[in-house]
Amino acid sequence: MISPSFIRVFCLAAAVASASLSVAQDAFSAEEGAFMSEDSLDVMTQMWHALPEAEVGSVGLAAGSLDASEVPGSMQRLSSKALRTMAYADPIRTLHALAGLNLVEEDGFGLRPNIGMRGSGTDRSARVTLMEDGILMAPAPYAAPSAYYFPTMARMESVEVRKGGSQIAFGPQTAGGAINLVSTKIPEAEVAGRVRLESGSFRNQQMHAFVGGTHGQWGYSAEWMHLGSTGFKQLDGGGDTGFEKADLVTKLQWTSTSGRHVVRAKGATSDESSRETYLGLAQTDYDATPFRRYAASANDLMTTGHTHAVVGHEFNPTPRWSMTTEAYRTSFVRNWYKLDRVVDTTGTTLKLADVLEDPLLSDALDWLRGGTTPDGAGLDLKANNRVYGARGVQHRGRWSFGGTAQHRLTYGVRAHEDFMDRFEWRDRYAMNDGTMALIAAGDSGSASNRVESARALAGHVRAALHFGAWTLTPGVRHEHIDLSRVDYGSDLDRASDGTERTNDVVVWLPGLGAHVDVVPGLWTAFAGVHRGFVPPGSAPETEAEFSTNVEVGSRLSTRALSGQITLFHSDHINLLGADLTANGGTGSGDQFNGGSSRARGVEFEAVGDVLELTGASAFFPDGKYHFPVRTSYTYTEAVFTQAFDSEFEPWGEVEVGDALPYLAPHQWSVAASWEAPKWSFDTNLRGMSAMRTVAGQGEVDPEYSTDAMAILDAGIRWRAEDQLEWFVGATNLLNDTYAVARRPYGVRPGMPRALRVGVTVNF
φ, ψ for residue 186 (rounded to 5)? Predict the structure, then answer.
């Protein structure tokens, strides 16, 4: 049940929203209109759930909907102007602006972010549906959904988030929500483009070049991006702790003279080399030198390669019927070579987490710090060598019917298959006075030698039925998934058939949404309920996770002020966890069930122009000055509702009422800009409360939690000419030090203050 306190909060916010209906609309229209006109995503998104009032095209998440009333559930969008204001490359910093997302930092750069929604869990973003231009982007969305690849945020044109009943159109994960990253559109001009260069602290650098255009029936674009840094952590003995990442994206489009046919092709590659580690710090070392990296992590290195190709056809046979078909293929190869465990002189293997926390293992901790290992002891580095692949075909359409009401039916089907191939090994090193020395190389495949695969057929149907001020959006999703694993064990040549296990899943996922125009064009309310789903792994004894998700919300939209508040409540059964090294597990990747849980909370977002709201715009000529403020707040209460024992360390011995780990109860953001004709001053204050790192209840123990934080970023943009803009700013301006995680092994810090300077040339 939703508690009375939540209802009181909702009613209070709704009252405040309704009291604002008399506010004039001009300034926000000028401000947000600029956002939207710049962010029109081209014809490519008329079909995959885009918000028409935001002029989003066919790769958007609200496609088939002619207005917000036809999108069941809460919806959010970050426009291109919002993304360019602070120009973050880190998706964690970018997504902090949105309510309802649970975020956990890890490396300080956001290379592999941990994102959840509405208490769904954050581990490797595996419990949200992640897409780029409407195509699934996790390396193996069904067989191994952990997002070790995440599209580069700095090259995106907009970000769309959908929660609640709108997830019926997506999947496979529908317990929390869906994130769609929309890449740069093909320009409508004959030739257009931009070049952005940025440099800063820790040799942080960003180089971004884009060119494209439309000539008659043909359009094209080419985009290149390079990100890099030497890292903000100091390795014992010196050395690079940063990364290099490069993306190349090309697009081609043809439109028939009648406009009824549009054919599109997209190709993308991404390569990364990052000297990242899972090894954090013991608490005493963090207190003394929070940005230290132990000598034992000197050889840790992640190398990846990602390719992505899509060919699509949009067909509009009649004004009432349109459809899009896309064929896609992605591949992802990675080898994360990193410290995995310690072996003592007796040959006993020691978990890194135990070495960092147990005073009785101080000798082993000294080896991590660079102390010489005695004979018989050593440090094992594991080559987490994996190959992923995914391919499929998806078709979706929209049919309008009825008279003046113009009801709509949207539908979609997707045939998909993916796999993950593990072929991993361990090498033994000795530590010689701060220097790593290889003493025994492992055989390739000896640490893990198996293939996970999945085949899925998914479909959905959803209607938008208009009855005066009311719109009803019933729908249903169906998933049929065949999961399998072939484990070759010690057969490194894979000459045998291996040991196979399979799991077959068939589910129906209904949902119903309702929307009402309280004050047409200004104030609306919505509610919805849907059945959420998280697919299990290949172990036949593992059951799928299901949830019942309810939300009630209200939206206000005027020219000076726009906002949304949502109450949500979700009950989860057969809660799924995954044995990942990233969350402190053994790294087997196996999924397991863990009882039941409940998540509930409040999401609030508002954006407005302070000058217009206060009437101060009258003191500034020609409407060329604006003071837009965007704020968001999320309260999440996520607890276990069933007691159980788990070998998964963050859960452990769970009691009813224990809070789920790595979910901040409070998360908020305030972004404000003073915008003049030639320059703007931008600030962004983001914060969250401390998070438990193990399940529990009562007062939070600082030894088993992250730090509460409030981080201020600021920047100044100056437009020298219409085509030239300079930027100077800083992230973490006050240079706060804060612990963002205690997983997988030890305390991990957020990034300290980083200065930035850049220039953008448009043509």
Answer: -75, 125
Residue 67 to residue 466: CA distance in whole angstroms: 12
SS (H, E, C) 96-127: CCCCCEEEECCCCCCCCCEEEECCCCCHHHCC
Determine if the peptide bond prior to 535 is cis (ω within 30°).
no
What is the DSSP secondary structure assignment for residue 452, as one 8-state letter? E
Least confident of 34-48, 241-255, 297-311, 404-418: 34-48
Q: What is the pLDDT of residue 49?
A: 29
* Overall size of the chain counted in residues: 763
Q: CA 7 → CA 20, 21, 515, 524, distances in Å? A: 20, 21, 19, 17
Q: What local confidence, expressed as pLDDT, does residue 411 receive?
A: 95
Name the amino acid, one letter, at 192.
Answer: A
- Reference 483, options 459, 510, 507; nearest CA is 507
Nearest Cα to 556, choosing from 495, 485, 604, 508? 604
φ, ψ (nearest 5 deg) of residue 83: -70, -35
Q: What single-letter DSSP state applies at residue 494? A: -
Average pLDDT score, the chain = 89
Number of domains present in the structure of the chain: 1
- Residues 335 and 383: their CA atoms lie apart, in Å, by 6
CA 701 – CA 697 distance, rounded (Å): 10
SS3 5: helix
Q: Give the per-residue SS3 of 373-414.
A: CCCCCEEEEEEEEEEEEEEEEEEEEEEEECCCCCEEEEEEEE
What is the span of the domain harbouring residue 418? 4-762
Contact 99, 633 (CB under 8 A): yes
Q: How many CA atoms lie within 13 A of 136 on its CB side?
A: 36
Both tokens of residue 373?
């290992």
Q: Report d(CA 77, CA 73) in Å as an integer.
A: 13
357: part of which helix (H) or strand (E)? helix 352-357
Question: Structure tokens of 306?
Answer: 């990602």
The pLDDT score that the predictor gives to residue 21 is 30
> What confidence category does residue 70 fall into, taking pLDDT thresholds of 50, 70 and 90?
confident
C-alpha–C-alpha distance, residues 549 and 565, integer Å = 16
Gap between the Cα atoms of 24 and 623, Å rounded? 14
d(CA 730, CA 201): 9
Spell out where 488-613 has E strands.
Answer: 499-519, 523-534, 545-557, 561-573, 576-578, 591-593, 597-609
- Rounded CA gap, 646 and 650, in Å? 9
What is the rounded CA–CA span in Å between residue 20 and residue 328? Answer: 46
**Distances 269 to 249, 272, 565 between C-alpha atoms, Å:** 7, 10, 39
Region 491-514 average pLDDT? 96
- β-bridge partners, 527: 514, 552
Instruction: Give the DSSP H or E segment for 36.
Output: helix 26-39
- Give the amino acid at 398: R
Query: Each residue of 728-760: b (16+ CB within 10 Å) or e?
Result: ebbbbbeeeebbbbbbbbbbbbbbbbbebebbb
SS3 for 1? coil
Of the pLDDT bands very low, low, confident and very high (cuts 50, 70, 90), residue 722 is confident
Is the backbone peptide bond immediately before 172 cis, with ω within 30 degrees of 0? yes
Reading phi first (left if > 0) and then psi (alpha if -120 to 50, else beta), residue 95 is in alpha
pTM over 0.85: yes
Alpha-carbon distances, residue 41 vs 136, 153, 638 (angstroms): 19, 16, 36
How many CB atoms lie under 10 A from the CB of residue 293?
A: 22
3-class secondary structure, 361 = helix
Residue 307 sits in a domain whose CATH number is 2.40.170.20
229: amino acid identity, one letter: S
Contacts of 59 (CB under 8 A, 6+ apart): 41, 44, 45, 48, 50, 133, 134, 180, 182
